[in-house]
Design brief:
2 domains, four-stranded antiparallel sheet, 4 strands, alpha+beta, 13% strand
Length: 182
């Protein structure tokens, strides 16, 4: 159980758990205690952790829909402009704005718009790329990639108190609790 000097600025406290069930239970108890700035880290997706932490649904599906609609509209406008306004050709007596011929490009630009918005939206929402995070200062945190589960309470949480938060985490069924320097 690592503690730091009182003059060291903290990012927060980190609790280590052995099983995903312990992590979910700790997340529920942490939320019930009134903590809001809480993050969970695990080597694989843990069913139920989002509900336990009280996380809101992601914006990614909405961004993907907006990107797909923008791609489709841009494809229709581009093809209509090219076929009916800029370079009209009468091929076999068909109308200049024949939508069945627009469909392949429409489909491709819809997919391109949706995937681009999803990819770049995910990067922005998650704050990526991020080569450094204060949790990397805790050597045991590398186990989050293999077989350990972690719960972090950030110091910017309104309820965070260095001593009380650490005492709260230690009364949970943790393997260890660590102070995370900034």
């Amino acid at each position: 159980m690592t503690t730091l000097a009182d003059d060291v600025e903290l990012y927060g406290c980190l609790a280590e758990f052995v099983t995903p069930e312990e992590l979910i239970d700790a997340a529920r108890r942490t939320r019930a205690a009134g903590y809001e700035q809480v993050e969970a880290y695990s080597p694989f997706p843990v069913h139920g952790i989002n509900e336990a932490l009280g996380l809101r649904p992601s914006w990614i599906p909405r961004l993907t829909l907006v990107g797909g609609v923008c791609g489709a509209i841009s494809a229709l406008l581009l093809e209509y402009y090219c076929a009916a306004i800029a370079y009209p050709l009468n091929v076999g007596g068909r109308p200049l704005n024949s939508w069945p011929s627009f469909f392949p490009v429409l489909f491709e630009l819809t997919v391109l718009g949706a995937s681009s918005f999803a990819f770049f939206g995910m990067l922005i929402i998650n704050g990526l790329p991020r080569p450094y995070h204060p949790l990397f200062n805790v050597p045991e945190f590398k186990l989050a990639q293999r077989d350990r589960f972690f719960l972090a309470i950030e110091a910017k949480d309104p309820r965070f108190d260095r001593v009380e938060t650490r005492a709260f985490l230690e009364q949970l069924p943790t393997k260890a609790v660590y102070d995370v320097p900034e």
